[in-house]
Amino acid sequence: MTKIASNLQIDSARLWDTIHETAKFGATPKGGVRRLTLGPEDKQVRDWFRARCEAAGLEVHVDALGSMFGLRKGRDMSKAPIGLGSHLDTQPTGGKYDGVLGTLAALEVVRTLNDAGIETETPICICNWTNEEGSRFAPAMMASAAYVGDFTTDDILSRKDAEGVTVAQALDSIGYRGATPVGTQKFSGFVELHIEQGPILEAENKTIGVVDSGQGVLWYDGKITGFESHAGSTPMPLRRDALATLSEIVLAMEAIARKHGPKAVGTVGEAVIANPSRNVIPGEIAFTVDCRSADAAIMDVLDKDLRAAIAEIASRRKVEVQFDLIWRKPPTHFDPKLVDAVENAAKMLGLSHRRITSGAGHDACNLNTVMPAAMVFVPCKDGISHNELEDATQADCAAGANVLMHTVLALAGVAS
Ligand code: HGY
Ligand code: MN
Ligand code: MN
């Protein structure tokens, strides 16, 4: 690699400024970001991102699910590009860094290579994947899941949000239903930078997480049907209370996750009472469950134990519980060659680092099923994420972006 390339550093202030510039799209009073996928704020940040990619000389195209690709030519255009990027959508009470850091660091890598006049051998392609969060439309990592063939484009286009709006309608409403069929853009590998969203790196005072694996994910949709009746005149033994049933299910899930811990977690993140009223016993509730483990066998046991507990609770309480698995993402084992490339970049830059498993899901976890992929983590304050308090330091963001850049340079090669 040329001397210039090996000493190359991204522009830390420019990266930091872009992160905070995009935070205004969906800024919340508590200092977080609410930028639900395919909503007006997502359109704002997408338009912003497209303009910056084009200003950096990238050829931008959008696929049928709105994922955005910015291609930077390499000397040998016959080779499939190295991909880098993440997502720009956020949780309802999201932060400034989740997904944003990886996407804007990819843009910063391009800007730095442009400034240095470096041409890579293999082209590179930066990405903004649609709906990584899975909050408005399920599943999470939706567009990259379709890209790898876990779902058809038509299936995803028909998915509805809580208001009954389809993905197709939402894409059309912001003008991001692209012409390119999903999967058209090929890659020879993919590297994603992300905040850890957990406490390990900060606790161990490590700057870089060399992500070699990721937890598997189980998502369920549940529906409890009890019986609405008068809150005053219905004796306790005669009640078929949907909310009391859910309360038992939540505690059972917590006990099951703890029993199989520490390599297991479980969350009921959504619960909606149909026709809620203070003096009516809840008769119907829709709820969601998210269970995870880095061990596929534990995932299977979580599923079995949870279904057994729900069956026992439902029969004892004389209610019906519908419990459907809507998404199963097996654990991820990233490509050893690319993981080594990340580790070598961290070493070359003299950054403290350690191997780590990702607790969160990421687009790179899906992409790894069809191409070599790896991830770079940096710490976030107190390990907090999916919370408006999410925070990271400029130095760590820059360190992560430099590891991303040098990993990509090692994979793509430097032509000049
Ligand atoms: O759910 C996840 O792990 C990711 O943040 N969407
Ligand atoms: Mn993310
Ligand atoms: Mn997230």
Automatic annotation (TrEMBL):
One of its GO terms (molecular function) is N-carbamoyl-L-amino-acid hydrolase activity. It comes from the Bacteria. The keyword Hydrolase applies. Keywords: Hydrolase. Its EC number is 3.5.1.6, 3.5.1.87. It is an enzyme of class 3 (hydrolase). InterPro entries: Amidase_Cbmase, Bact_exopeptidase_dim_dom, Peptidase_M20, Peptidase_M20_dimer. Residues 216-315 form the Peptidase M20 dimerisation domain. The keyword Transmembrane helix does not apply. NCBIfam families: hydantase (TIGR01879), PRK09290.1-3 (NF006769), PRK09290.1-5 (NF006771). This is N-carbamoyl-L-amino-acid hydrolase. It comes from Bradyrhizobium algeriense.
